Amino acid sequence: MFFNSGLFWFFMGMITILVGVGFKAFADDRGWVLNGWKWLLSILWYIIFSLSIFSYGTLAGEMEARAGIKMLLLGLFVCIIYGVGLWRMLSHQPRIENTPDKNI
Fold this sequence. Notes:
The structure is a single chain. The chain contains three helices and no strands. The longest helix is centred in the last third of the chain and has 27 residues, at about 65-90. Helix 2 runs antiparallel to helix 3. The chain is mainly α.
């Protein structure tokens, strides 16, 4: 079975690395400064998003598709709210106030 093999998890690891590299390139293009805790919050969002999809697949495989859809919708709802907050936090640029020159 493909999902029980190491090949599946190898591909999942490759996809995760590509998502991380793509996010880093996207953040650099947008001019975002990512420090450790911003990376941690971004990784947490990705984990919640992935687990909501994985839980649907698991529950559908166990013939509990209705519960899987409910779990998927709940997880995606949480991801949308968390993602909007994370986007606003990452894209926030602190204001630089124009202070008068003290030598005048």
